[in-house]
TrEMBL record:
<feature type="region of interest" description="Disordered">
    <location>
        <begin position="336"/>
        <end position="355"/>
    </location>
</feature>
<feature type="region of interest" description="Disordered">
    <location>
        <begin position="246"/>
        <end position="278"/>
    </location>
</feature>
<dbReference type="GO" id="GO:0007409">
    <property type="term" value="P:axonogenesis"/>
</dbReference>
<keyword id="KW-0813">Transport</keyword>
<dbReference type="InterPro" id="IPR000483">
    <property type="entry name" value="Cys-rich_flank_reg_C"/>
</dbReference>
<keyword id="KW-0406">Ion transport</keyword>
<dbReference type="InterPro" id="IPR032675">
    <property type="entry name" value="LRR_dom_sf"/>
</dbReference>
<comment type="similarity">
    <text>Belongs to the SLITRK family.</text>
</comment>
<dbReference type="GO" id="GO:0071805">
    <property type="term" value="P:potassium ion transmembrane transport"/>
</dbReference>
<feature type="transmembrane region" description="Helical">
    <location>
        <begin position="292"/>
        <end position="325"/>
    </location>
</feature>
<dbReference type="InterPro" id="IPR003591">
    <property type="entry name" value="Leu-rich_rpt_typical-subtyp"/>
</dbReference>
<keyword id="KW-1133">Transmembrane helix</keyword>
<keyword id="KW-0407">Ion channel</keyword>
<dbReference type="Pfam" id="PF13855">
    <property type="entry name" value="LRR_8"/>
</dbReference>
<dbReference type="InterPro" id="IPR001611">
    <property type="entry name" value="Leu-rich_rpt"/>
</dbReference>
<feature type="domain" description="LRRNT">
    <location>
        <begin position="23"/>
        <end position="57"/>
    </location>
</feature>
<dbReference type="GO" id="GO:0005886">
    <property type="term" value="C:plasma membrane"/>
</dbReference>
């Protein structure tokens, strides 16, 4: 009996210890079975400081969070899922996630984040899902995804992105889904290399939504993957000219010329013209495939008409020559055997007139 009482007492004490070990913050909802803390939709402007250290899931959606202090997650090394969506975050400290080595899912959807530090995700090697959609991102720094070999899902929808660098996404060898829609993409030379990467990503089975072009106007609304590579042939020429300009520019920086100071004169001021050493760069634009095909068709039709005209002229010349030969034969037959000089003279006149 004493042994049974001791066992019951031990179980009761262990339950009390477990409840005290996973103490739920005030006004939040907790699930000790899955070690989840849910503080969503409470209008909070700061993260509670009494979150249990063994929490695996922390939900902080639909609040008024605008600032993340540096050490706010320093005691949550066991955290696996973090959701800070629908808040007012405008920047993220560089080391804010440095203690979350077990993090596998990070949700930052619908905030006001405008910039990301390239070392922001340096210590989250187990991250599999990252959502940065509906923010104000205009640039993704190169190297930010270098330490995320396990990342499978990435969302960059509804930002202010105009171009992406292929080198930034090449380390994501296990990426399966990428969302980049609803951005003001400029389908120019800056996006050409990323187009190659998208084609390779789709070829190996990755899923990517539509990357619709905004500029230039000839490609507005078209998916970048469907744009022919011939549209970017001018990029190579532009790169060559830029490289040659850098190599040749050994003197002072090129500036627009200005009128040289001289003695004060009455009259109209001289117009400012670009200096001879500063030629204006030609702005290349992608060639329209439809226009190129139309030009080829028109050129083919014109060449065909010219060839037909040449054939007709050659045939007319042959017919004319045969008629003249026949005419000469008829004249020769009509000549008398004892021809007089007058008849011959008239005949020569007729032949010369016909010729």
């Amino acid at each position: 009996m004493r042994w049974q009482e001791a066992c019951l007492l031990g179980c009761w004490l262990s339950l009390c210890a477990a409840e005290s070990f996973f103490a739920c913050p005030s006004s939040c909802k907790c699930n000790s079975g899955i070690l989840e803390v849910d503080c969503s939709g409470l209008g909070l402007s700061s993260i509670p400081s009494d979150i249990p250290t063994n929490t695996r899931t922390f939900l902080f959606l639909n609040n008024k969070l605008s600032i993340l202090p540096g050490p706010v997650f320093s005691n949550l090394s066991a955290l696996q899922r973090l959701d800070l969506s629908n808040n007012f975050l405008d920047q993220l400290p560089q080391n804010i996630f440095s203690d979350l080595g077990n993090l596998t899912e990070l949700q930052l959807r619908n905030n006001s984040i405008r910039a990301l530090d390239k070392d922001l995700l340096q210590h989250t090697a187990l991250l599999r899902q990252l959502d940065l959609s509906i923010n104000g991102l205009a640039h993704i720094p190169s190297g930010i995804f270098d330490d995320l070999p396990a990342l499978r899902s990435l969302s960059l929808r509804s930002n202010r992105l105009q171009s992406l660098d292929r080198v930034t996404f090449e380390p994501l060898t296990n990426l399966q889904q990428l969302q980049v829609g609803d951005n003001p993409w400029e389908c120019d030379c800056n996006l050409r290399d990323f187009k190659h990467w998208m084609e390779w990503f789709s070829y190996r089975g990755g899923k990517i939504d539509q990357l619709a072009c905004t500029l230039p106007k000839e490609l507005k609304g078209k998916d970048m993957r469907m744009v022919p590579m011939e549209m970017f042939n001018y990029c190579s020429q532009l790169d060559d000219e830029n490289s040659s300009t850098v190599l040749d520019n050994t003197g002072p920086p090129c500036t627009k010329g200005s009128p040289t100071p001289s003695k004060t004169k009455l009259g109209p001021e001289p117009e400012v013209e670009p200096s001879v050493g500063c030629p204006q760069k030609q702005r290349y634009r992608p060639v329209s495939v439809r226009r190129a095909i139309g030009t080829v068709i028109i050129a083919g039709v014109v060449c065909g008409i010219v060839c037909i005209m040449m054939v007709v002229a050659a045939a007319y010349g042959c017919i004319y020559a045969s008629l003249m030969a026949k005419y000469h034969r008829e004249l020769k037959k009509r000549q008398p055997l004892m021809g007089d000089t007058e008849g011959e003279h008239e005949e020569q006149k007729q032949i010369s007139s016909v010729a």
